[in-house]
Amino acid sequence: MKKIAIIALPILLTGCSYYGQMVERMHTDTLEYQCDEQPLTVRLNNTRQEVHFVYDNKPLTLKQGLSASGARYTDGIWVLWSKEESATVYNRDRIVLNNCHLPTPKR
Predict the structure, then answer these.
(1) Which candidate in 33, 65, 67, 88 could, as Cys together with 40 as Cys, close a disulfide (CB 3.0–4.6 Å)?
(2) For residues 71 and 104, what is the distance between their CA atoms, to the nearest angstrom?
(3) Where is each C-type lysozyme inhibitor domain found (predicted)?
(4) Confidence (pTM)
(5) How many CB atoms lie within 10 A of CB 51?
């Protein structure tokens, strides 16, 4: 019986890990913004209340912060501020990506 438990435990743990990753992907949206400077792909994880994106070959993860309007994500240095279909990215209060918009869906 112990041998079965020893063999089954890693399989069960692998299944739990896979399930956790699957649930994580289900709660993550990918947003494709078109900005004045360059395109911006943002992965929005609603469960963790954070966004992931790459700027200047640097991967960034920002947590949701306080916002009077829209959604604001920050790590204290970088800020992604989004409202409705638009977004702006700041680095130390300096705009680095401006006029970012989600493309309108074609009908």
Answers:
(1) 33
(2) 20
(3) 33-94
(4) 0.72
(5) 24
